[in-house]
Amino acid sequence: MSQQTTIRKLAALVNTPVEKLLEQLAEAGMKFSSPDQVVTSTEKVKLLGFLRRTHGKSEKAVEDAVSPKKITLNRSRKQELTVGGGKNRQTVDVVVRKKVTLVPPSGKGDGIDPASGLSREEAERAEILRKLEESRQRNLSEQQRLAEDDKRRADEAAERKRQEDAEADRLRKEAAAAAATVTGDAAPAVRRATHGHGQPAKPAAPARDDRAGQKAKAHRGSHAMVAGVEDDDSTARFAGQLHLSAADRARRSTARGRPKPRRNVEQSRGGSGGPHGFERPTAPVVREIAVGEAITVADLAQKLALKGGDVVKALFKMGVMATITQTIDHDTAVLVVEELGHKAVRADSDDAESELVAHVAEVQGEQATRPPVVTIMGHVDHGKTSLLDYIRTTKVATGEAGGITQHIGAYHVETPKGVISFLDTPGHAAFTSMRARGAKLTDIVVLVVAADDGVMPQTVEAVQHARAAKVPLIVAINKIDKSTADPNRIKNELLEHQVVAEDFGGETQMVELSAKTGMGVDDLLDAISLQAEVLELRAVQDGRATGTVIESSLDKGRGPVATVLVQQGRLNRGDYLVCGVQYGRVRALFDENGQAVDGAGPSIPVQVLGLSGVPDAGDDFVVVDDERLAKDVAQQREAKRRETRLVQAAGNRMEDIMAQMGQAEQQLSLNLVVKADVQGSVEALKQALTALSNDQIRINIIVSGVGGITESDANAAATAKATIIGFNVRADASARRVVETNGLDLRYFSIIYDVIDQVKQVASGILGMEIREEIIGIAEVRDVFRSSKFGAVAGCMVIEGVVKRSKPIRVLRDNTVVFEGELESLRRFKENVDEVRVHTECGIGVKAYNDVKAGDQIECFERIEVQRTL
Ligand SMILES: Nc1nc2c(ncn2[C@@H]2O[C@H](COP(=O)(O)OP(=O)(O)OP(=O)(O)O)[C@@H](O)[C@H]2O)c(=O)[nH]1
Question: Where does the record place Basic residues bias (predicted)?
C-alpha cells in the first residue's frame, strides 16, 4: 500500500499545510481524523471538485474533467518578500500563480500520475472510453453509408419497375384498344380513386398513367413516398429497417393490408414483383393427359404436375368428394383435367402390345403337323378321371399316376399313331368355365357318358360348349363292362341334342369302352388320331413360342409355377416371355412327370419356372427377344387390368349405395372373398358362385386369388362385410386376428360341392341346419423323427386350442392343405394321451401320411351342426 496517497503526502504534493488540507477535506464533506489516513482517488476528485467550486466552477465540469485527456488547474500562493536592507528594507506581497496540468500517465509508470495523482486504472478506463467512442462513430458512419447504398439500389429498382410497368401498361392499352374493350372507362375510374386518396400524380413520370404512378410509388420505398395515410403508415412501419429493400417493404406492406392481390402477383411474377404489379399472364402450359378407364387422384395429379391436394380441391369444386388415393372414372378425370385447363386424351395403352403383335408376326415360319389337344368332358362320376388315369398309367412312358386333382393339368401320350395331348379337366360342374376355356385350347372334345347312366345335364352342357367352340366331339361310352350298360340308349339320347353317331348316319365317332378294364381305350385313341388327321392340325415347329396358361400356382420353393400349353413355335429354357401380366425368363421347364426338359414344341404341355408372378389360367404367353419388351407389355397390361378392376370396384360401391338407399329393389348382396390353393379352383369357384345369383340375392366375389388368406384379404372382407371362403387354404395369424376383431364369417372347404351347396342354400333362402367344420386346435411341427416302428412322428407344440386324438386332422403347409386324415398316435413323453392342450409339446403320428415336415401345421377339427343363417 506504499503506492497509496496519505493526507500528509497529498498536502506535501499540493504544497498545502496538512491542517488546511484536513479542513478542506472536512469542508468537502470528508472527515479524516489523522494526516496518515489514505485518500482515495474518488476522494481526491471530490476534493478537487470542491476546490473548483469554490472557484466558481461546477463540480460536474470538474468530474467531467476526469475522463478527458488532461486537466489544467491554476493555483496561486501569497508570499511576503523582503527587498533591500537596512533602512530600505521593504516587505512586498508576492502572489505566486502555479499552473498544474494533469495528464494521465502514458505507458507503465508507477501507477500514479505525479502531477494529477490519478491512478493508472483510471487512465486506462479513460482510454477505453475514448476508443469506444471512436468505434461508435465509425459504426454510425458505416451504417449511414450502407443505408445510403440501400436507398440508391431501391431507387434504381423502383425506377426500373416504373419503366416496366409503363411499358406493360402501354401494351395493355394497345391490346385493349385493339379489342375495343372498355378499358377507357376504367382508367379515369382509377384516376378518380387515386385523387380521392389525396395523392398527386408524380411529375417525374408524366408519360405513365395514374395507375402506373401508384404502382411505382409503392415500389420506391418509404424514403420516396409522398404524403398519404398508407405511405405514412409504411414509413412508420419500416422506420429503422433501412436494410430492407424497397421490394421487400412493398411486399410486407401488402401482406398486411391486401393478402389476395399479393398472392396473385407473386404467382405471376415468381414473387419478385410488388403488390400492385400486374402483367399479362404468360400463356398457360396446356398438357395433354392420357386418361384410361380409371385413374387415382394421385396419379392424375402427377400427370398434371400438380399437387394431389390441388386436384382434390378441383374435384371438390365440381362436387366430387375424393381423397388422394381414391380412383375416379374416365369421365370425371376428363372433366377435372379440362377444369384445370388441360387437355384429356384417351389413354392408348396398346403401344407395347402392338409392338408385341408385330414382334410375333415376324416369326411366321414353316408349318408342320402338330399333335391334337384333347379335352375330356362329361357328367360327374361318368368316368373322366378313370379314363384319364387309365391312359396316363398305361400310355405315359414314365407314368407316375397322381391322385385325382381338382384343377386342370395336362399331359401328352405317345400312341402308335402319334402323340396326343390331354387337358385334364375334372368332372365337376364348378369347372364349367375351365371346360369352356379348355375347349378353346382344344382341338377335340371327348365326351364321356356312362353307359349305365345316360345323358345328364352336364353331358348336354359339354355338348353345348364343344359346339360353341366349334370343336369336334368324340363320344366315349364308358362303363360298358357293366351289366347295366346300354350304349344304344346313349346314342339315342344324344340324338336329341343333335349329336348323331356315325352308325346312325351322322359324323360323330362314338367309342364303347371301359376305363376300368381298358377295353376300347385304344379305339378311342385311334378315333382321336383319325379326327386329328381330318382336322389337319398344323403349327410352326420352331421359332418363338406362343401358347396359353392351363394352370398356375405359387410354390414356396420354386416360386410361381405355370403349366402352359405351347401352341406355336418352341418354348426353350432361357427364353424371355410375357405371360398375362407377368413376365420373366424361363429358368426351368418340366414335363408332366416332373422331368426337366430343354424345350417343348406345339401341343405339348410344360411347366414353366421363372415368371415374375402367378399368371391366371387362360392367360396367353408369348416369347419375346428381350426382357425390356416383356416387362413393358406386362406392366402395361397390369396397369390396364388395375384400371378395369378399379372401375368394377367403383361400380360395386355405387350399387352398394343404391342398395342402401333401397333402390336395388330389395335384392340382397352376399359378398365373398374366395381364396384357393390353385388358380383353376379360384376360377371355377368364381364362375360357379356368381352364377348362383338370383332375384333375391346377388353374389359378389370381391376378392379372389391363389394362396393362404392374408390380412389384406380379411381387411377387404371386413370393409365389404364379406364372407371369406378358404378352399384348401387357411388364414394366417394376422388375418385371423382381423377376422376375430371384426367378427367375420370365415369358412374353410375342401370340396367344391360343399362351397356351392352352402352358398346355393343361402342364395335360395333355405335356412336349415348345416354341418360346419370348427378348428379346435393347431399344433406346429418342430421336428420329425422317423422310426421303423411308428413311421414318421412329428414332434409338435400345440399353439392353439386343443388337439384331440379322436378328431380328424389336416396337415397344412404354407397355409395350404396338403393332407386330410386322422391321427395315428398322440403322445406326451411316451405316454399315449387323448388330448394335448395349448403350449404343450407332443408327438403326433399321422395315419397314412409320412411326409410331415418341420414347419407344417396340424390342425385338428370337428364337424358341428349349426343353424344356418343368412
Ligand atoms: N365299372 C366301371 N366303373 C367305372 C368305370 N369308369 C369309372 N368307373 C367308376 O365310376 C366312379 C367315378 O369315376 P370317376 O373317374 O371318378 O368319374 P369322374 O367323371 O372323373 O368324376 P368326377 O371327377 O367326380 O367328376 C368311380 O368309382 C370309378 O371307379 C368303368 O369303365 N367301369
Answer: 252-262
398 known ligand binder: no
For residues 212-233, average pLDDT? 37
481 is in an annotated binding site: yes
Distance between Cα 383 and ligand 1 center (Å):
3
Q: Is residue 792 part of a domain?
A: yes
Answer yes or no: are the C-beta atoms of 480 and 520 closer than 8 Å.
Answer: yes
**Ligand 1 atom nearest to CA at 427:** 25
Question: Would residue 270 count as lying in a domain?
Answer: no
The Cα–Cα gap between 729 and 677 comes to 6
Residues 304 and 292: beta-carbon distance below 8 Å: no
Asked if residue 635 and residue 573 are part of one domain, the reply reads: yes
Q: How far apart are CA 128 and CA 132, in angstroms?
A: 6
Q: How far is CA 496 from each of CA 119, 500, 506, rounded to the nearest angstrom?
A: 138, 9, 13
**Could you give phi then psi for residue 720, rounded to 5 degrees?**
-95, 5
Residue identifier of the C-alpha nearest atom 6 of ligand 1 = 383
* Least confidently predicted of 163-167, 205-209, 562-566, 760-764: 205-209
pLDDT tens digit sequence for 181-219: 444 444 443 333 334 343 433 444 344 444 434 443 333
Chain segment 579-612, per-residue pLDDT in tens: 888 999 999 998 877 788 999 999 999 999 999 9
* In a domain? residue 355: no
Nearest protein Cα to ligand 1, atom 22? 427
Has 378 been labeled as part of a binding site?
A: yes
The pTM score is 0.45
Same domain, 389 and 522: yes
CA of 155 to the centre of ligand 1 (A): 102
Distance 473 CA to ligand 1 centre (A): 20
Least confident range of 179-183, 284-288, 337-341: 179-183
As for ligand 1, residues whose beta carbon falls within 6 Å of it are 378, 380-386, 426-428, 478-479, 481-482, 514-516
282 in any annotated domain? no
Q: Are residues 480 and 553 in the same domain?
A: no
| Range with lowest mean pLDDT among 474-483, 713-722, 824-833 | 713-722
User: In sequence order, which residues have a C-beta less than 8 Å from that of residue 659 and are 6 or more positions away?
Assistant: 667, 669
More confident residue, 179 or 737: 737
DSSP 344-403: EEE--TTHHHHHHHHHHHT----EEE---EEEEEESTTSSHHHHHHHHHHHHSTT-----
Mutate to test the pocket of ligand 1, among 375, 381, 434, 753 (most ligand atoms within 8 A of CB): 381
Between CA 687 and CA 679 the distance in angstroms is 12
Bridge partners (DSSP) of residue 271 are: none
- Secondary structure (H, E, C), 610-651: EECCCCCCCCEEEEECCHHHHHHHHHHHHHHHHHHHHHHHHH
Given a cut of 80, whether residue 614 has pLDDT beyond it is yes
Instruction: Return the pLDDT at 183.
Output: 41
